[in-house]
Design brief:
heterodimer; A: alpha/beta; Rossmann fold; 3 domains; eight-stranded mixed sheet; 12 strands; about 50% helix; B: alpha/beta; Four Helix Bundle (Hemerythrin (Met), subunit A); 22 helices
Chain lengths: ~400, ~725
């Protein structure tokens, strides 16, 4: 997407890692993943179950505390992990020890010490950023609200009193607002993600209440509008989740997330648990919302044909690593990484004859790669097409891509 | 039809009692399943596809009402067999794989135990059963031969019994040692690899297993003249068992390498014909002559043919011909009787006592038409008594049932109205009355008889051109198989080996280690493989897969589908594959049935359904799935499936169908025949229907697929 190159990304993920478990049994669910998502685009994240795509989504909205790396939203650092700095400090200390025992140069030791001081600063900064994510945002919001009302309030008029009350209300909301609520999530299983003991109205209004909205009238108005937007009717507001079909439940989940007026949605396999005939309804709804509300969507799924249809760009993940990332058409036209190839060859198609002759490509990282001499990195093979590879593979892929 | 029908479902109707009324889950479904084919049932949730499969397995929920229809399998109507009888079929003959692999495995039992449990339990039962059916066939042959005037039948059959016993003993001995040889071969290969790679942890266990397996494989037909050599090699390996480094194990490695060749030759050796050999050992000479297996086979075959089998076959043919004549005579009699009694049932208001008397006579007449020498059972005739009883009972108790239902409904309605009259809204609803359709029940009685009549006529016609030698061969094969089964005993150790082989067969690495693990230690795809392995332990005829890949992702899904396909080919299984995703079935289904609201709306081969779909619902299903070239807006199916408490009067899909015709709302479309293999229930196929083209998305896709194929062929 050439026009995107000039644009500032809405969400910027840098070297994000998320490890689970303690020292001996560390499970690297997400390992050094970087990508950008531009405003208004749909970014698809695919891979088999257990490859870390859901963890990536959850780390972005701070459901987990990231191990290391950062996520920038609107230029503000919303996720900041510190493990990588801590590790480097350890390395530098070991280096100092080695140098001093060998009687190394004073200058080198000093350089190491400086580096450690620098890293300490980084950690401090990360911790500060992590704690004070909302400060600037709240300030900006409050300013915005004040600007909006300033002129109206300064004018004398009959409604001045009411207007002032409204201003104070909005100001309070702005001061309690959180940046992360601008990113909302839609979950995979519509049955498990809706509280069975709450009515639809309560489910959708819960976020608003937490945000500080107290006016029941406003809440009701917003809830009903949302129901209409997602294609349900106002009567549904008083019902419980079990009274709905799967597709309708997923619509409630969508309404719950867009009532917060988000700029971005992380859709975590929103259609995997649905019947084929209902999938199309949900996809169409998301497409409409994207057009009408200008949403940006991170779409996590394992069904490649849907991802292809729905997304502008696609990232393929394998065991915590992003192995390939490019435009969706480009990915299907010319997959470069062997894992992507195997994934594409497994897509079932509604065509019996070609299906019977289909040969699935098998992927075995031990056979397909030679990583003993060099660690692979995400490299841009041709403009806009990133593949995780070593330098040797890089040349091979480039040749393949230019064919 | 040349293919063998395995399962026949006829006019199946199933409902469920719920607090809101009777949900009609399955309404008049009919399909056949042939040997070695895959039938896919496609439909969205609530269309009744799972209910159908559960009815076949006999595991319907407690509130299910079997309203009618038949599921014919091997001489039985699965809708009416007792639970005891079902124990012998379920899992043994018909096995099932469920959607969620985790919930269908026992979490606190090791995988191996779960695999062998059923094997050991079933083995005992099947031995008994085989013995019974063997004896039954012998008795039938004996009487028929005597009646046909064949001399010396009893002696011949005693002879047959004697050597078939010998045969089954030989057979089990042979398979056991062959299995051991295979196992020893695999172990030896593995051990050599491990010694070479210096991964020697717990190598002692595997070496021990090799020694045991090698010693077991020493038999006349498997490791023949080299038995002594192999035994010495095994002793050598055993001597080295305690050693821990690769250098120390060099001697053992050498021994393993040598035994590898011997075992390879043994596994590939000629299979002895234990059947003819059994005869040879019993009646000609009680020692096996020292000949190569191939020549031995020829020799024993000649002996049995000249001395016994040719004559026996001739006699059997005579008996079969006699039996056919007898049965046909009985059939003609039965036809005459059924025809004469038909007016009793067809009368405007049938008389109960007359009908009962007629039914009694008819049952006896139809029972006489069973050919005792049949191998492929005639299900319809077998189940006639229960079917006619059921239909008659339904008709005569129907009116009293209806009156009762009416009373209940009136009472509830009155109560409801009283509450409403007080100005309150009750928090319950009146369960709508569900009546027995007396007209349909009446028709059902007549239909049952007519169907039987028609069936008899067909059979008389068919037996005129019966292939006698083929049928007598069939009987001999049947006896042979039952004899084998009746003495096939599985020990715990053998069950373990078989389980490990099954695990290997479904593509699980290191089956020996995996055997001792718990289900939670496996990933989703691996778990599903284990569930499939468990389903296959009893060597079923039919495998029902209920959405086996819905919980899995694309790559694992592809693996599981490949596995099912391969197993089907190896074991000649018939598979019923249930799914909501049409894309999944394209590569495995031979035929596809599309279900909607409890009915089959389209039925045809995979090519028919994918390349020329005819029903609007199939169109909708196909166009709601994006493929890799879809760009335009997806055609979603508007609305939701109908509430099956109040099933729609006309075509169930009409309400969600943009192009629904007026008649779609009024009358149910019948199944229209498009080609010999392709049927669809839609009014669009009626000659007077307006021309409605299928959606552009699908026509374009089909064209694209055709183009893609022609270009790839060039």
């Amino acid at each position: 997407m050439s026009e995107n190159n000039h644009q500032e990304p809405l969400l910027k993920v840098e070297h994000l890692s998320m490890y689970f478990g303690k020292r001996d049994a560390v499970k690297k669910a997400v390992n050094d993943v970087s990508f950008d998502i531009y405003k208004g685009e749909i970014f698809g994240l695919v891979g088999e179950s257990g490859c870390g795509k859901t963890t990536t989504g959850r780390t972005i909205i701070r459901l987990y505390d990231a191990t290391s790396g950062s996520v920038y939203f609107h230029g503000t650092r919303i996720v900041a992990g510190t493990r990588s700095y801590v590790e480097e400090i350890k390395q530098q200390r070991a280096k100092i020890k080695e140098l001093s025992s060998n009687g190394g140069a004073e200058a080198e030791i000093q350089a190491c010490k400086d580096r450690i001081a620098e890293l300490r600063q980084e950690i401090k900064k990360a911790k500060y950023d992590h704690k004070h994510v909302n400060d600037q945002f709240r300030k900006d919001e409050a300013e915005r609200v004040t600007r909006e009302y300033q002129e109206a309030i300064s004018k004398p008029g009959a409604e001045k009193h009411a207007l002032h009350r409204k201003y104070l209300h909005d100001l309070r909301l702005a001061r309690h607002s959180q940046l992360v609520t601008k990113i909302q999530m839609i979950y995979q299983d519509p049955i498990a993600s809706l509280d069975p003991r709450m009515t639809v109205r309560e489910i959708i209004a819960e976020g608003l209440k937490i945000q500080g909205e107290k006016d029941q009238k406003v809440i009701d108005e917003k809830v009903l509008k949302m129901l209409e937007t997602v294609g349900l009717v106002s009567e549904h507001a008083t019902r419980y989740p079990h009274e709905f079909s799967g597709g309708q439940r997923q619509r409630i989940g969508i309404a719950r997330s867009i009532v917060m007026n988000p700029e971005m949605i992380i859709a975590d396999e929103p259609i995997s648990a649905l019947d084929v005939s209902i999938r199309a309804q949900v996809i169409n709804l998301l497409n409409e919302l994207r057009a009408s509300m200008g949403l940006t969507i991170l779409f996590i799924a394992h069904d490649l044909s849907v991802v292809k249809y729905f997304s502008d760009r696609i990232g393929v993940m394998y065991y915590g690593n992003l192995v390939e990332m490019t435009d969706s058409d480009e990915l299907f036209r010319c997959p470069l990484h062997p894992y992507t190839k195997s994934l594409l060859s497994a897509i079932p198609l509604p065509d019996p004859e070609s299906e019977r002759n289909r040969i699935r490509i098998r992927y075995n990282p031990l056979v397909d790669h030679e990583y003993t001499t060099e660690e692979p990195e995400l490299r841009e093979v041709i403009p806009g097409h990133f593949v995780r590879c070593t330098l040797k593979e890089f040349e091979k892929y480039r040749e393949e891509a230019q064919k | 039809m040349a293919e063998q029908k395995k399962l026949e479902v006829k006019d199946l109707r199933i409902s469920f009692h719920t607090t809101n009324g009777k949900v009609q889950a399955v309404r008049d479904i009919s399909f056949d399943l042939y040997k070695g084919e895959t039938l896919a049932i496609v439909g969205e949730s609530g269309s009744g596809k799972s209910v159908t499969s559960r009815a076949i397995m006999g595991i319907l929920a407690g509130n299910a009402i079997k309203e009618g229809g038949k599921i014919l399998y091997d001489g039985k109507d699965l809708m009416k067999v007792s639970e005891d009888e079902f124990h012998r079929i379920r899992g043994d003959k018909i096995a099932m794989v469920f959607q969620d692999p985790l919930s269908s495995l026992n979490p606190i039992m090791r995988v191996g135990q779960q695999l062998t449990e059923a094997m050991l339990l079933k083995n005992k039962a099947s031995r008994k059963e085989s013995k019974e059916s063997l004896n039954k066939m012998f008795r039938a042959l004996d009487t028929r031969m005597k009646e046909a005037g064949v001399e010396g039948s009893t002696e011949d059959l005693t002879k047959f019994k004697k050597f078939s016993l010998k045969h089954s003993a030989l057979q089990s001995e042979y398979t056991e040692s062959l299995d051991s040889a295979r196992e020893a071969l695999a172990l030896a290969e593995n051990l050599i690899l491990r010694i070479d790679n210096k991964s020697l942890r717990n190598i002692r266990e595997d070496m021990n297993a090799f020694v045991l397996a090698a010693n077991k494989s020493l038999s006349r037909f498997v490791v023949n003249e080299k038995a002594e050599q192999l035994r010495e090699l095994a002793v050598k390996v055993k001597a080295d068992m305690g050693k821990k480094t690769a250098e120390e194990l060099a001697g053992a490695r050498e021994a393993l390498q040598q035994s590898l060749d011997i075992l390879q030759a043994a596994v590939n050796a000629e299979t002895p014909n234990t059947f003819t050999l059994g005869y040879y050992l019993t009646f000609v000479e009680d020692k096996i002559p020292d000949l190569p297996v191939k020549e031995l086979n020829v020799l024993t075959h000649q002996k049995i043919d000249t001395e016994y089998m040719n004559e026996f076959m001739n006699k059997a043919e005579k008996a079969i011909q006699y039996s056919i004549d007898q049965t046909n005579e009985a059939r003609s009699k039965a036809i005459a009787l059924l025809k004469s009694k038909l007016p009793v049932f067809e009368a405007e208001a049938p008389n109960k006592s007359e009908v009962d008397a007629a039914v009694r006579e008819m049952k006896v007449a139809v029972q006489n038409c069973l050919d005792p020498l049949e191998v492929v059972k005639d299900s319809l005739t077998h189940t006639f008594p229960t079917s006619i009883d059921y239909a008659v009972d339904l008709f005569f108790t129907g009116s009293s049932k209806n009156a009762k239902e009416q009373k209940r409904f009136d009472r509830a309605q009155k109560k409801y109205d009283a509450i409403v009259a007080k100005g309150k809204t009750p928090d319950w609803e009146v369960i709508p009355a569900s009546y027995v359709n007396l007209e349909a029940a009446h028709q059902d009685m007549v239909d049952t008889i007519n169907e039987q009549l028609h069936h008899f006529e067909e059979q008389i016609e068919a037996t005129k051109t019966a292939d006698l030698p083929a049928r007598s061969l069939q009987i001999v094969d049947y006896l042979k198989e039952q004899a084998e089964n009746s003495s096939y005993k599985i020990t715990k150790g053998a069950a373990r080996e078989r389980a490990i082989k099954l695990l290997e067969g479904v593509g699980i690495d290191e089956p020996r280690r995996r055997y001792r693990q718990y289900p939670f230690e496996f990933s989703g795809g691996m778990r599903q493989r284990i569930v499939i392995a468990i389903a296959l332990t009893a060597n079923p005829d039919i495998l029902i897969c209920d959405e086996p890949t819905t919980a899995l992702d694309v790559t694992i899904q592809a693996q599981i589908l490949e596995l099912i396909n391969e197993l089907k080919r190896q074991r000649d299984l018939s598979v019923i594959f249930i799914t909501h995703d049409l894309g999944v079935v394209a590569n495995m289904a031979d035929r596809i049935a599309v279900m909607y609201a409890g009915k089959i709306v389209e039925y045809g081969t995979a090519e028919d359904v994918f390349y020329s779909p005819a029903h609007p619902y199939t169109w909708a299903l196909l166009s709601s799935v994006p493929d890799l070239d879809t760009k335009e807006r997806l055609e979603s199916i508007p609305g939701t499936p109908p509430n099956m408490i109040y099933p729609p009067k006309g075509d169930a899909f009409a309400e969600r169908n943009k192009n629904a015709l007026e008649i779609d709302f009024e009358e149910q479309p019948p199944m229209f025949k498009i080609t010999d293999t392709h049927y669809a229930a839609t009014w669009l196929l009626h000659p007077n229907a307006p021309k409605i083209e299928m959606p552009k998305v699908i026509t374009e896709r089909i064209n694209r697929m055709k183009q893609g194929r022609s270009s790839s062929n060039e």
